[in-house]
């Protein structure tokens, strides 16, 4: 018993160290590696996401990469590639999306990075508008607004089952990236929490015919139906160069907290420590003394400081940095319509009652996060008012190794996506969540018409985007062990890990689900 107790103590110490790494990596750590790596100057390149791995673990390649610094340079890059009929994909500074939205087909295409399209263009305090280039990060956007006493009503927020305060999310997202994936916060008030629904103008560089020099800038303003396509574009319409936002409001921030209860011991250790530390909030800029915490919008605690800190030889890094074999995880993020949310939660509760320990691991990744999302006018935005459920959980470095309670989270995923018709977050999720997704959007055909008009040769499209848009074969990948990685829903035992005792079985609550269970 003493030996077991010692082991448990050591494991709890490990968790505390893990928590410390997560918390303090937000304060002082090495910045992430550039997601684009080339064997020679801007040529023969690979690109990954900030986690170092796509859902299917493939390596995405490009012949070269361009780094335009002005809209004029961007037009030239797009025109040259269009004339040569080369495939193109847009890359952001930190490449934070999980799906393969940035991947080209083959290795002959061109990556266009918005890393240096990162300038503030104009702020009009009287009209409450701000115009920026598409490579501007969320942090920059918030800071620029704060300089004139304004704040953003739509910045992405976390809201979970824990005592986590209502705070800004990852500030390394770029403006173009947020529009490409329909990034959102949490509210049903006003125009909602989706970033795209506060956009009043977009400038986008698209392919063109020889009579227009093979590339042109399209300016899309409020009232133009094309804005409904450009607001959530998946990067298939062209390269967004500039964006103008509306809806800036005077700052008025006050933090709130809720109590956590009923968590498993190890998960509670993490969440309790985060609660005690107030997630990094401080009343005077140094020490946290209690809620409410009131201050300027750009001083709210948020994930992201590890992006721009000094290099310290990787002593401290973002917790998921692949250079140090950091956290490696899946993310399932699905929006369930308000009319179905209660039933979805009840189904999840039934699963937890059947297997009480099944979701303990979720606590180690900040629990299940819930955010309100309002129906969007964007063709590929949310179709109705909904609650978004973000679930982050362990992913093995070995693609053939099942997770503990593999079947439960697979069933939660299928309940949300299939039983209740949930919409996957465009910038997160495993392949399974995108199966047949385009059929859930009432105006999908309108989006595809704009896509055909803007890029008739499909130069900004790829196999992945064609699959999720229903233009090519299915997005799922069927092979040995595919269900373990969310590349498929199992239909045969070989899709799981039969040699390790995991077989394809019906779900416990949702019997139509097919999960890898033992």
Oligomer: single chain
Shape: globular
Class from helix and strand fractions? alpha+beta
Low-confidence runs of at least 5 consecutive residues? 1-28, 154-168, 247-263
Indicate the proportion of strand residues. Answer: 15-25%
Helix content: 10-25%
Mean pLDDT, to the nearest integer, reads 82
Q: How many angstroms separate the termini?
A: 29 Å
SS field, number of helical segments: 11
- How would you write the strand order of the largest sheet? 1-2-3-5-4
CA-atom Rg in angstroms: 23 Å
Biggest sheet architecture:
5 strands, mixed
Q: Count of DSSP E strands?
A: 20
Descriptive notes:
The protein is α+β, with helices and mostly antiparallel strands and 518 residues long. It has helices at residues 2-24, 71-83, 138-146, 175-181, 227-230, 265-276, 338-354, 360-363, 406-419, 444-454, 463-468, and strands spanning 36-40, 43-47, 60-66, 88-91, 110-113, 120-124, 129-133, 150-151, 157-158, 167-168, 199-207, 215-221, 239-245, 249-250, 329-337, 369-373, 386-394, 423-424, 503-506, 514-517. A five-stranded mixed beta sheet has the order 1-2-3-5-4, covered by helices on one side. A hairpin with a 2-residue loop joins β1 and β2 (43-47). α1 runs parallel beside α6. The longest helix is centred in the N-terminal third of the chain and has 23 residues, at 2-24. The chain is globular. Residues 1-28, 154-168 and 247-263 have low confidence and may be disordered.
